[in-house]
Specification:
The protein has helices at 16-33, 73-88, 90-95, 100-114, 127-137, 158-167, 186-196, 219-228, 249-252, 278-281, 292-295, 311-325, 329-348, 377-388, 413-424; strands at 61-62, 121-124, 145-149, 170-174, 201-207, 233-237, 256-260, 272-276, 353-355, 368-372, 390-391, 393-396, 401-405. By secondary structure, the protein is of the alpha/beta class. The structure holds pyridoxal-5'-phosphate (PLP). The site of pyridoxal-5'-phosphate has 14 residues, from helix 5.
C-alpha cells in the first residue's frame, strides 16, 4: 500500500493532531483499497456480503474460526500501513507520544464491545496469558481449591496445575456430561456446576462457550449460584465469544474475562483482552514487570507492562474492532443461528452423521461438533483438508470423537453442504 506520510512528525514539537492525522490517512487508504462490487447487497453475511474481503486461498473452505480467525483485508491493509509508518522512525512510534492516545482509543473501543469500563481492560497477547496471570498472581494457597469442568480448554487449565505445585493450592476438574449435552437446559447446566462446587472452592473457571461442543454457558446464573455458595472469584474464558455473540460483562457479574482477539474479533495474531474487575486488579500480582511497575501501579495497564511490543498490531486491533462495530449484531446472530439450524437439519437427514452439540440456541453458538459413523474425527478432519481443502478441527478423545465446525460471517450453507458431500466421498 502506498501512502503519504507527513514529514512534520520528524520535527520537534510535531502536534499530536498531525500525528493522529497520519493514522486517519492510513485508515482511509486501507478502506479505499478494499474493492467492493457495485452490485453488492447490504447483507453483512455470506459470500455475497460486502465483508467477504479476506485473503483466503480460493481452494480453501474455511470452517475453523474457533481455532484462528480470518482478518478482513481492510484490517490487514491498515496493519501493514502502521508497520510501514513505524519503520520510518521506530523509536518515535514505539516509545514516544504518537501512539499513546491511539492505544487508549483501542482500549475504549474494546471496552465498548464487551460493555466494561476501559479502566478494567488490559490489552494482552491471548487468553492463555490471562489464565497464567491468575494462576500465578491471585492470592491462593494451601486449602484453596480451583475448580473447572472437563469442558475447560487447556489454555485455561494447565497453568493452574503448574502453579499449584509451587503455591500449594489444589485443582479439581469435574466431568461435564458431554454425552447428554443435547438434552440439557440452562438449569441443568447450572446444576452441574452447583453439584461440583465444594467447601474449599475459591475460584471457579468456566468457558463462556467451550471449544469442543460449543456449549454457551449461562454465565450470569452460574455466577450468582457460585457466589451464594461462597466462591470468591468467577473467571471466564471468553476466547470463543467476543465478537461471536454479544458479550455484556456488566450483566454477567464476573471477576475476570479473557479473550483472544485473533479469533472472532479478527485482529492480527497475538492479541488478547483481559477484563479484570477494578477491586480484583489490586489482588493480582502481575506476571511481568518492567520500568512501568510504579508508573502503571493501580491501573489496569500494570498487566500489560511488557516492555517493547508489537504496537502496529495493537493499533490495528482498533481497525478490527471498527470492522466489528459495522456489523449488525442481530444480523450476525441470525446468520450464526441459521447456519447452526441448517447444519442440524443436514445431520438429521444423514444416517452417518450425529449431532454432538446442544440442541437449543440459547445454549449454542457458532461452533458445533458432528460425529461421523465409524470414523476417527481427527482422521476425518485431516482428509477433509488434504483432499478437499476444507478446514475444520478434528477431535478424537474419550469425550468426543468428531469434527468441530466453526463458521463465521462470510460462510454460507453451501460451505456446510460441501463439507458433508466431502465426508460422504
Ligand atoms: C476456549 C478457549 N480457550 C483458550 C484458548 C487458547 O487461546 P490462545 O491460544 O489464543 O490463548 C482457546 C483456543 O482455541 C479456546 O478455544
Amino acid at each position: 500500500m502506498r501512502m503519504a506520510i507527513s514529514r512534520r512528525r520528524f520535527l520537534k514539537g510535531a502536534s499530536s493532531a498531525a500525528l493522529l492525522a497520519e493514522l486517519g490517512l492510513i485508515r482511509e487508504t486501507a478502506a479505499r483499497s478494499v474493492i467492493r462490487a457495485p452490485s453488492e447487497p447490504a447483507s453483512i453475511t455470506g459470500k455475497a456480503g460486502w465483508n467477504d474481503q479476506y485473503s483466503l486461498d480460493p481452494s480453501v473452505t474455511y470452517l475453523n474460526h474457533g481455532s484462528i480467525g480470518t482478518i478482513p483485508r481492510v484490517v490487514q491493509e491498515a496493519h501493514s500501513g502502521y508497520l510501514s509508518l513505524c519503520e520510518t522512525n521506530p523509536w518515535l512510534y514505539m516509545w514516544s507520544e504518537p501512539w499513546v492516545e491511539p492505544r487508549e482509543e483501542v482500549r475504549r473501543r474494546a471496552a465498548a464491545l464487551v460493555n466494561c469500563d476501559p479502566e478494567e481492560l488490559a490489552i494482552t497477547h491471548n487468553t492463555t496469558e490471562c489464565f497464567n496471570l491468575l494462576a500465578g498472581g491471585l492470592p491462593l494457597g494451601a486449602g484453596d481449591e480451583v475448580l473447572f469442568s472437563s469442558l475447560n480448554h487447556l489454555g485455561a487449565s494447565v497453568c493452574w496445575y503448574n502453579q499449584s505445585v509451587r503455591r500449594g493450592y489444589s485443582v479439581r476438574q469435574f466431568d461435564f456430561p458431554i454425552d447428554e449435552i443435547g438434552l440439557l437446559n440452562e438449569s441443568d447446566v447450572v446444576a452441574r456446576y452447583e453439584e461440583a462446587i465444594g467447601p474449599n472452592t475459591r475460584i471457579l473457571v468456566l468457558p463462556h462457550v467451550d471449544n469442543t461442543v460449543g456449549l454457551r454457558h449461562p454465565v450470569a446464573q452460574i455466577t450468582s449460584m457460585a457466589r451464594d455458595k461462597g466462591v470468591r472469584w468467577i473467571v471466564v474464558d471468553g476466547a470463543q465469544t467476543a465478537s461471536m455473540i454479544p458479550v455484556d460483562l456488566k450483566a454477567l457479574g464476573i471477576d475476570v474475562y479473557a479473550t483472544s482477539a485473533h479469533k472472532w474479533i479478527q485482529s492480527p495474531k497475538e492479541l488478547g483482552l483481559a477484563y479484570i474487575k477494578e477491586e480484583v486488579q489490586t489482588q493480582i500480582r502481575p506476571m511481568w514487570v518492567t520500568w512501568g511497575q510504579n508508573y502503571w501501579k493501580d491501573t489496569v495497564r500494570i498487566f500489560e507492562d511488557y516492555g517493547t511490543r508489537a504496537l502496529p498490531a495493537v493499533i490495528a486491533l482498533g481497525d478490527a474492532l471498527n470492522f466489528q462495530t459495522q456489523l449488525n449484531e442481530e444480523e450476525r446472530e441470525r446468520h450464526h443461528w441459521q447456519l447452526w439450524q441448517n447444519m442440524q437439519q443436514i445431520v438429521d437427514e444423514n444416517d452417518n452423521l450425529f449431532w454432538r452439540s446442544p440442541t437449543s440456541w440459547n445454549l449454542s453458538a457458532a461452533l458445533y461438533a458432528v460425529e461421523v459413523r465409524d470414523k476417527n474425527g481427527s482422521d476425518v478432519a485431516k482428509s477433509l483438508f488434504e483432499e478437499h481443502g476444507i478446514v475444520v478441527r478434528g477431535f478424537n478423545t474419550p469425550a468426543l470423537n468428531g469434527i468441530r465446525i466453526s463458521p463465521n460471517i462470510a460462510n454460507d450453507t453451501n460451505d456446510l453442504e460441501k463439507l458433508v458431500a466431502a465426508i460422504g466421498d
